[in-house]
Design brief:
The protein has about 300 residues and is an alpha/beta fold. The termini are far apart. The chain is built from eight helices and ten strands. Helices cover about 30% and strands about 25% of the residues. The protein has one domain (about 50-300): Alpha/Beta hydrolase fold, catalytic domain (Rossmann fold), CATH 3.40.50.1820. A ten-stranded mixed sheet has the order 1-2-4-3-5-6-7-10-9-8, with helices on both faces.
Length: about 300
Amino acid sequence: MPVRRAVRVPARRLLPVALAGLAVALTACGGGATAAPAEPAPSSTAVRDVSLTVDGRERSYQLQPALGLPAGDQAALVVVLHQEGGTPAGVASETALQDLRRRGAALAYPAGVDRSWDAGACCGTSSEQGIDDVAFLDAVLEDVPSQAPVDADRAALVGYSSGGMLTYRYVCQRPGRLAAAVVVSGSLESDCGESISTPDVLALHGKLDGTIGLDQARFIAALGLAPRAAVSSLGILTRSAGCDDVPATTAQDDAEVREWSGCRGGGRVQAQLVPGAGHGWATLDASRRTLDFLGERLLAR
């Protein structure tokens, strides 16, 4: 009868088997420390607060990633700036732009220091302390693509009231950075450089706005200044961008529409001046107007 010889198995092949057996034994006996079960990774579409440090100060923004984005696709990015005294959660609710998420855009809502922005001459703690909110917006625009799949070439700012003031400032100081911008009840309270290029800009303004006048500035005690009138802000921006001197004027959507073309960089500046409306977002029907404008410029395929 033939004799079977023992087969020697190299120790390096036995080691994984031995370790696996040891793990099973420890689990069965219930002895020793066991690793805590790993927590599930957050959903890629989960709404979350993101912190980052800018100029040595901790800042934050709320991120609402796009919904239903096909694998491998990148979303547009819309950064929404709250009004004086506002918050990311508050402006997210009031502006009601979440339909953009379902249409392929991520939304980001930065938080101002003490609920304020440094838009130049205005406003609050941020302006008094010279907080560099332009640098903060740079940081947000650079950080979001590390948090969600975003196309940096399809980024827009939407600013309401003092957030609109900062939007104007960013358009002037970061020419070529944005694909679109929307200013709602805002004014230009900073310098706008010469020979800038401008993205497509929509300015929404109520003709009865008691805070930012249409043709004349009004002193606002709570702000400690007289915000520049809407027509003046638009004049400075369009001259800086080399747009046509005279806008085309039409009537649409219950608003007087003035549009400047021929702007440097290929953008257009459109103002929708709404009769019977004041400073408030809702009175301007700003959600619908903003969704229509950004849908055409960021999401049309």
